[in-house]
Amino acid sequence: MSEILNSHDGVVEDTHVAVRLEDVRPPSDEEILRVENLTVEFPTDDGIVHAVRGVSYTLHEREVLGIVGESGSGKSVSSMAVMGLLPRNARIHGKILYRGDDILKMSPRRQRDLRGKKIAMVFQDPMTALNPVYTVGDQLAEAVLAHELMPRKDALARAKEMLDLVGIPQAEARLRAYPHEFSGGMRQRAMIAMAVINNPDVIIADEPTTALDVTVQAQILEKLIEVKDAVNAAIVLITHDLGVIAGMAHKVLVMYAGKPVEVTDTDSIFYRPRMPYTAGLLGSMPALETTGHRLRPIKGAPPSLINLPPGCPFSPRCPLADEVCVTREPELMLTDGLEHRAACHHWEKMASVEDPTVFFRAESEIKG
Amino acid sequence: MIAFIARRLGISVFVLLAATIIIYVMTALSGDPLADLRQEQGPDREEKMRVRSERMNLDVPIPVRYLQWLGGLLSGDLGVNREGQSVAIILGNALSATLQLVVAATVMAMLIGITVGIISALRQYSGFDYTVTFMAFIAFSLPLFWLAVMLKQYIAIEFNTWLRDPVIDPPVIVVVSLISGLTWGALTVGTQKARLTSFAIGAAVAAVFLTFLSATRWFADPGLGTVVIGLLAFGTAVGVTALFAGLQYRGPLYAALAAAGVGTALSAVMPGLLVDPTWLELFGLLLLTVAVCVGLGYALGGLQRRQAVTASVLTGVVTAGLIFMDALLNAFSAYSRRMRGRPIATIGSNTPNFRGDFWQLTLDSATHLLLPTMALILISLATYTRYSRASMLEVMNQDYVRTARAKGLPERTVIVKHAFRNGMIPITTLIAFDFAGVIGGAVVTESVFGWKGMGNMFLEGLRTVDPAPVMAFFIVTGGAIVICNMLADILYAYLDPRIRLS
Amino acid sequence: MTLSVSAPSGDAQGMTIVARTQGQLVRRRFFQHKAAMAGLTVLLAIVVLAFTSVGFGPFDGWWKYNWTQTGTVVNGGQPTLTLWPFSLGEHPFGQDNVGKDYFALVMRGAQQSLLVAFLVGIVATTVGTLVGSLSGYFRKWTEAVLMRWTDVMITIPVLLIAAIVGRMAGGSGIIVLGLALGLVIWPQLGRLVRGEVLSLREREFVEAARAIGTRPRRIIFKHILPNTLGIIIVSATLTIANAILLESALSFLGVGVQPPDISLGQLISFYQGAMLTRPWLFWWPGVFIIAIALSINFIGDGLRDAFDPRQNRVRA
């Protein structure tokens, strides 16, 4: 068996044309998930870590929401809160409404019924997210049996169906294989299969492609969109890479230091950023069309989440920062676009130029 | 698999061979085998020295002596000691007692140590965890021989004296109840109130239980009886089901309860049937029990057949164990009378020239094994506790445990299925190392409790610079360590599919 | 248990942490470890007490008796030590049946047991580190020899080989005994160091050093060993704790320290028969063995936490 498996190891060829977000059914108006003013704190030896400081968003049926931010921006912690997977010492406040019911107020038992059934998750590193000592089939079937009493045989049949759906060839044989017999891309496909096996309403994908080869990344993202359409699910796509979001999300929420700093549709993020941090991220992104420019990293590092400075947390790194910025933290406010919100005192200055990344360029060119 | 075992055995034979050279030569060089005779005054001194030299081949060089010994070994001859007694016969008498001791201590230490370690990890930073950690450090620092002497002098003698009038003093009841309460309280997570409740329940249950034992003078004529066996069996059924299948669905619970019911019903008639059984008969009964329980699980398990079989088999085996214990305890008062009221033995591995039925003989071994085993467990208990705690903590932080939770699996399944198996993988590598330590400990323990076991044979051989008994000791223990090592490897490969036996 | 470049973790939540050197961090964590500090205090107190009270070598001690002189047995040899109000009395730990002062005997035993244990620790650590790092770095025959040797040693229970060595060396004094025991128990440490070196030699900074033509000796001593220092120090500490127990067990069996030398285990063995009539003869050496082993174990635990704090952190 292992020879058959090995011969197909590596990149799996997809025969169909690439699936983009515009090719699948658009979101409806039905609200599936609503997060209201979520905060998460961890007490540590050095003080309280304010990991998430007030996140709100809504997710509609079939909608894809991208959450973008550096590591430590609170993007993963906020979604782990939705899944109820934070460690016991975490202090969580706010509301997480699934179809109107607050998950944080549910009994552990009801939370568990939602977890993996209605809200499923795809993790970052497929190499470690699967249990090495059980077969892939067993781990998939287990996800079904956790929520539904049925013969194991039927659960395995469902698992096979899902492996077919995510494009793993010879699904029948692969069910009996162990995770170490899979390549990275195949493991992530198996993780996606595991996430959709119970037809969830929401899939939270936490950096699903970060740990993968560049060649496989696009395939996995497309598969995610395709599978989402098959089971009619919404997606929260968490990434540190704006490039992943392009063409893959309807809405984007940019996070910095535990807070959303810009929320809008995907096009606006790329063409009309109203928060200097977003512009900085765009400037540090390689692009095919623009040549002759150097990549411009944002200088400095994100602030400590234990002792946050009083003003805008981005101000120490921001080329537009002035007196106001270091004294008062800006609220998320409506800017020029429709439903385009940004947390910046100077969004109008951003709006006044054609290409807002120019601020970062100016700075980097002045300073050499 | 078979090829793997064969290859490992082949390598092990060479390793053992190399070890025998080292041990033989070092033993032979460790002193003068004629030292005692040289001191002697008397006319036949020369003659004695000549006889011993001849018997031990002292006039040929050590390497030649080694080869002669090796030749003997290959033809199945372990040689004679310097008094001319056959080492094979000495070994035959010594072997079973020592193996019983070593195996009992290892198995108990593993069971208790791993369980405590896992609980300690799951309750990290609780009072229980801190206490276990502290006790482990004490255990790491206790000299085994010192503890053994303490057990012998205080526990055995005091306990035997107390058995004449087995009434538990009220202060003892209070202290034990408090400890019980504290343990439960420390194990409980949650609010102050929940902890206090656990404390109160734990303490109260222990107090009532001990008072009852004291008032009925249970220790004078112990036994369980059908009612107690029934209670324990049904309790086990519920507990085992909760652990391995969850109480959400009925199938596994019914299967386990059925197993408990059958066992309890049988417990009323079994003692009449098992008047003087043999171990083989008992083993047959155990197999029968397992078969019946598999059947029960299969029939009643419904869609959760696998879990149901696990739950009912475990319940069945535990109930069978309870029936066995009951029969053994029933024989206790008669045994105690035969020992003139001092049943807990402090010397030797059995009572010389003791005859009786199966239960009497088993009790005789058990009472002799009790204290040495208690002492010897100490060697490895703390090691198993610390390793399994560390291993579980490591595993509980792994991504796949998070994945298991994200699927919506109950915490029970996350721990029993996903964390436990991975956590046990590093423990297997500990087993062989630890087993060698236990054998060393057995030498010390036997010396304290005056067993004529293998440890005694080894020490006697070493004192008299007599390689034959020392080598016999090593052949058996080294062989046991090799087998233990191999079992550990097989277990490792079974637990971790990434390792292939080839 | 890699130590090399590990910065303090915790950056998962985006915390920025004041930069401190690895050494400062280790020292800070060690000195904040309460159990280790308690262990260190007790151990130092015992060492000072044992070596100053009855004297050592050419130096005279402050205690009025020594371990050889016999005398009249006062009050059945009962210990005169009282804790409240504190007073030592004439024979704080009592006397044996020929009137020897038991405090002097126990102090002498503690001295010699400590000496043997530290010798074993030093020898085993030195040999283990050398062989472990050589075989880990060069692989080839050094590794083959170490691995085969370890295979052989694993099949021999430590107590068996140590007893034989003790039988050979015990009569030649405690120094020889310590050296000999150290020479048979190093393989465990050697294996540990080898494993560590094996993983370090594949690391980028070692490869970089090799690429610029650094000689092997310099790579081992400048780049690899400093990074295994933590694991070596921790194992050396635990080896000493185990050596205390091993020596006392051997002496108890009569194959360790031989008269006229005195060790704690030997005292227990010698007075075991007096358990019922003079239990203190049994208690005191035992208490000292436990106190020494426990405090060294606590120190080892503190060092382990200090060098490798990951075990103790909850990952969020």
Question: Which short descriptors sum up this protein?
Answer:
heterotrimer; A: 368 residues; alpha/beta; 8-stranded mixed sheet; 4-stranded antiparallel sheet; 12 strands; 33% helix; disordered N terminus; disordered C terminus; C: mainly alpha; 10 helices; 2 strands
Descriptive notes:
- Chain A is of the alpha/beta class and 368 residues long.
- Chain A has a domain at 273-367.
- Chain A contains 15 helices and twelve strands.
- The radius of gyration of chain A is 21 Å and the shape is globular.
- Residues 1-15 and 364-368 of chain A have low confidence and may be disordered.
- Chain B is mostly helical.
- Among the domains of chain B are: 2-90 and 458-495, no CATH class; 167-216; 222-340, no CATH class.
- Chain B has 19 helices and no strands.
- Chain B has helices at residues 2-29, 35-39, 45-56, 62-74, 87-122, 127-141, 144-163, 170-187, 192-215, 225-244, 250-273, 279-300, 305-330, 332-338, 358-396, 399-406, 411-449, 454-463, 467-495.
- Chain B is globular, with a radius of gyration of 27 Å.
- Chain C has a two-stranded antiparallel ribbon.
- Chain C has a single domain (33-307), classed as MetI-like (MetI-like fold), CATH 1.10.3720.
- In chain C, α3 (102-138) packs parallel to α6 (174-201) and α3 packs antiparallel against α8 (216-253).
- Chain C has helices at residues 22-31, 34-53, 102-138, 140-155, 158-169, 174-201, 204-211, 216-253, 264-270, 280-307; strands at residues 82-83, 86-87.
- Chains B and C meet through α1, α6, α7, α17 and α18 of B and α4, α5, α8, α9 and α10 of C.
